[in-house]
């Protein structure tokens, strides 16, 4: 199998994909997005300069980390990162969504408020791998302007920054308590939930120097979990027996339900109005601005439908359950303040195909 990953060290989602491929034992080479093949072949097919992208030996391109992971889960041998038991599987899917779509807020906040000068040089190493340090810095500053421009759209500003930091530091404490007793979220094997968390917690909040110092000081067990994730023992470990959800995971799930879920509901309402007026259109990156609340502070951020596609995976799995399995998962949701997940109504069916997010009527 000849697999190429187009990615970069500072990239949140490259970190997620790389960690998974290493654990799964997939042999791959990694190329930077400055590689001529990425510019001449990948961007024209995908339609935009996004990383990571996987190129298979037959030339097929895979974009989006969930698509990449699910491809190798189907194709590669060995144990799965998806728990087979209902409570663990639902919790893992929810935490993948939380990591991918919500923890980008503290990831981007800490990068652009505490690590800005450093990250310019890192971007420059990606853009001009053979350039001088000064040339790399200048190139990185030019490229970084786009990413810095996303910061206010994510709801990060002087008003919300203290609450974002309070929430993130509290989350670090919750995760530190959990990883003090467990190697991964659900035992000694990483799950899809671990891979959702690793993107922001490694590529931004561990690897960026000021953020890394904070993590190692406040949450050394989280730092050690990051190190286990990025230098894994391939295909190792087991999930906890009897569908156990450790008590230390409940506060983390509760944080998702308290912070992330109301925002997803607001995005769903905005998407409902947009979809009714645009029945045949590709779903845009944003459908307006939505309120969100962190640690009692309310702000506005872009309403991103892609997060609903991620959340839909949890809803689909919950809908597939019946009998005791469904009741057990509902009890878990109730325990962490997630009753609204059971009642959550998607406005339409979201589909991610051919590198595009589209919608279709429910049913």
SSE layout and pairings?
Blueprint (H helix, E strand, L loop, with lengths): L2 E4 L5 H13 L3 E4 L4 H11 L6 E3 L5 E3 L1 H11 L10 H16 L2 H11 L1 H12 L5 H17 L11 H19 L12 H13 L4 H10 L1 H11 L19 H28 L11 E6 L2 E6 L2 H16 L2 H13 L3 H5 L5 E5 L2 E5 L3
Parallel strand pairs: 1-2
Antiparallel strand pairs: 1-3, 3-4, 5-6, 7-8
Question: How does this structure look, described?
Answer:
This protein is α+β, with helices and mostly antiparallel strands. It has three domains: 3-75, Glutaredoxin (3-Layer(aba) Sandwich); 87-242, Glutathione S-transferase Yfyf (Class Pi), Chain A, domain 2, CATH 1.20.1050; 247-360, no CATH class. It is 57% helix and 10% strand. It contains 15 helices and eight strands. It has helices at 12-24, 36-46, 65-75, 86-101, 104-114, 116-127, 133-149, 161-179, 192-204, 209-218, 220-230, 250-277, 305-320, 323-335, 339-343, and strands at residues 3-6, 28-31, 53-55, 61-63, 289-294, 297-302, 349-353, 356-360. The chain has a four-stranded mixed beta sheet, with helices on both faces. The chain has a two-stranded antiparallel sheet with strand order 5-6. A hairpin with a 2-residue loop joins strand 5 and strand 6. The radius of gyration is 20 Å and the shape is globular.
How far is the N terminus from the C terminus? 39 Å
Q: Helix tally?
A: 15
Order of helices and strands: EHEHEEHHHHHHHHHHEEHHHEE
What is the beta-strand fraction?
A: 5-15%
| Broad shape | globular
CATH architecture of the largest domain: Up-down Bundle
What is the tally of beta strands?
Answer: 8
Summed over residues and divided by their number, the pLDDT gives a mean of 96
Total domain units? 3
Structure classification: alpha+beta
CATH C-level of the largest domain = Mainly Alpha
Strand order of the largest sheet: 2-1-3-4
Computed over alpha carbons, the radius of gyration is 20 Å
Which runs of at least 5 residues are low in confidence (pLDDT < 50)?
none
